[in-house]
Amino acid sequence: MEPDDELTDVAGRVRRRAIAGVRGSLALTLATLPLSFLTNVVLGRVSPQALGYYSAIQIFIGSYYTFLVFGGIYVFTRFVPAIPRRDRLSFFLSYSAIVASVSVLAAGTVVVALPDLASRLLSRFGSPAPAVAAGLLGVALAWGFGSYFLFSVLESARATAVEKSVVVGFFVAAVLGFGPLRDRLTEDPARFLWWAALAVYSGAAVIAVVFVVGTEEFRLSDPIRWILPHRFWPTVAYTHFDTIVNYVYSTLSPVLVLLWLDVAALGRLSAALRYVLLLTVLPATMNSVIAPAVSRLDAAGLRDEAFRQTAAAMRTAALGIVPAAIVLILFADDAMALFGSGFRDSGDILRLAALSLAAAPAVHLGGGLAAGLGAFRAYLMASSVYVLATLGASAVLVPMQGVRGAAIALSLGALVRHVAILSMLRARFRFPWPGRLAAGWVCCALALTVAMTLRPGRPVACALAAAVVAAFALFGRVTFAELRALGSKAVRGS
After folding, report:
1. Which of 24, 60, 181, 442 could bond to 157 as cystine, CB 3.0-4.6 Å?
2. In this predicted structure, what is the pLDDT of residue 462?
C-alpha cells in the first residue's frame, strides 16, 4: 500500500469508527434522556428541597473531580490513543493510583487538621456522614475513570452505558422516593438522596470495571508496570485548568446559589438547567468521540481532515441545538411548570440561562479540538479570560439578582468562552469559524429580547418561534441537501 493510501485508510477507519461511536452513544443517550429529565421532574414535584439536595450531591461530586482529579478525560484523550495497546492498562492504573492517593491525602488532612471546616462544608450539602461522603467519592472515581478509559479506546457505546447507568439508578431512586418511600424522602431528603447516590454510583462503578476488563487493552496487556508518558505532568497541569474552566462554565452559578441563597433556590435554578443540560447532550456526546478521533488524525499527519470533521460537527450541533433553544426561550413558563405549578413564575430564569446554549457547539467541540491537538497552553490562555470574566460577573450578579443573576452570569460567561475558544483556534491553527455559530447567537438573543419584552401568549409565541427558526436557517445557511445527508447518516450510521 502506498503512503498516501495508508493515510487515507487511517482517516477512513477513524472516521467510520467515530461515526459508529457517535451513533451508538447517541442511541444510548437518547434512550436515557427521558429518565434523566423525569428524575428531576419527580424530585421537583416532591419539593424544591428534594431537587435542590439532588443537585447539591452532583455539585459535590463535580467539585471533587474539579479540584482533586488532576486532568480528567482530556488526559485519556491525549495519551491513550498514542500509547501502545499493551501499555494502556498500565497507564490507566498508574494515573488512577496517583489521583486516589492525592484524594486520600487531601481528605485526611481536612478531616484531621480542619474538622470544623469539613463539618461546615458538608452541612451545606445536607450534612452526610463523612464515611458516606468519602465512599461516594471513591466509587464515583472508579465510575468516571472507567468511562474515560473506554471513550479513549473508542469503546464509545460501552463508555456511554457506564455513564448512563447512573441516570437509570437515580431514576429508580426518584420513583421509589415519589412512591413507596415518599415519607422518607419528604421527611429527610438529604439523607435519602445521599444513601441513594452511594448505591447508584457503587453499581455504576461495578459496571465500569466489568467493561474495562472486557476490552482488548485488558486482554492483551503486558504485565502491569508504572507508566507515565512523556510530558504527562505538563499535560495534566493544562488539562486540570481546563477542568476548572468547565467547572466555572457549568457549576459555578449553582454553587454560588447554594452558598449565597439556599437549597430551595438551587432547586429552582436546577430545574432551569435541566433543559440546558438536556440540549447540550448532542455536542458533548459528539465531542467524546470526535476528540480522540482528532488526536489520531493529527498523529497521522491529517490535521486538515481533523479540522474538516470538527467544523462539520459544530455546524451539525448548532443545527440541532439552536432551534430547540429558541422554542425553549419563548415557552419557558410552560417548560418550568412541568416541575410543578410553583415553578411557573421562574420562567425568566430558564430564558436567561437558555441563551448560553448558543455557545455549546464551540465550547464542547472547540475544546475537544484543542485537546486533541495538544494545544493546552493556548487553550489555557484563552480560558483565563473566560474564567476571570465569569467569576467577576457571578460575584456581582448573584448577590444583586439572586437566581436570575446566576442565570445571566451563566450566559455571559458562555459568550466569553465561545469567543475565546474560537479566537484561539483561529489565531493558532487558522481554524475556520463556522458562520452558523454566530447566527445561532443572534437568533437566540432575538428570541430572548422578544420574550422578555412582549411576554407573548402561546399562539403568538408559536408564530415568533417559527419566524426566528426560519431566520436561523436562512442566515445559518441550512440547506435541504444537508438535512437529507444528516438523515441518511443517522439511518445508516456512516
Report:
1. 24
2. 95
**Rounded CA gap, 280 and 361, in Å?**
8
What SS3 class is residue 404? helix
Give every CB contact of residue 485 below 8 A, 6+ residues apart in sequence.
Answer: none
At residue 29, the 3 state secondary structure works out as helix
Residues in the chain: 494
Closest-CA residue to 293 (of 4, 19, 7): 19
Cell triple for 105: 491525602
Q: What is the largest CA-CA distance in the chain?
A: 71
Q: Cell numbers of 30, please?
A: 437518547
Give the H or E element holding residue 300: none
Q: What stretch of H or E contains 342?
A: none
Q: Following DSSP, what letter does each residue of 425-455 receive, concatenated?
A: HHHHH-----HHHHHHHHHHHHHHHHHHHH-
Using CB atoms within 10 Å of the CB of residue 446, give its burial: 0 to 12 exposed, 13 to 18 middle, 19+ buried: middle
What distances in angstroms separate CA 48 from CA 42, 83, 310, 340, 352, one per listed residue?
A: 10, 47, 40, 9, 20
- Residue 227, classed as helix, strand or coil, is coil
Which residues does the chain have with pLDDT short of 50?
A: 1-8, 494
Q: Check residue 2 and give its pLDDT.
A: 46
Sign of CA dihedral 314, 448, 33, 122: positive
The packing angle between helices 130-152 and 115-124, to 10°, is 70
CA distance 349 to 397: 13
Ordered alpha helix ranges (H), 214-361:
216-219, 232-250, 252-260, 263-299, 303-330, 332-337, 347-354, 360-361
* DSSP codes of every residue in 159-219: HHHHHHHHHHHHHHHHHHHHTTTHHHHHH-HHHHHHHHHHHHHHHHHHHHHHHHHTSHHHH
d(CA 152, CA 131): 32
**Cβ contact 322:474 at 8 Å:** no
Q: Which long-range contacts (CB under 8 A, 24 or more apart) does 309-314 make?
A: 309/15, 309/18, 310/365, 310/366, 310/368, 310/369, 310/431, 311/431, 311/432, 311/434, 313/283, 313/286, 313/287, 313/361, 313/365, 314/283, 314/361, 314/362, 314/365, 314/366, 314/434, 314/436, 314/437
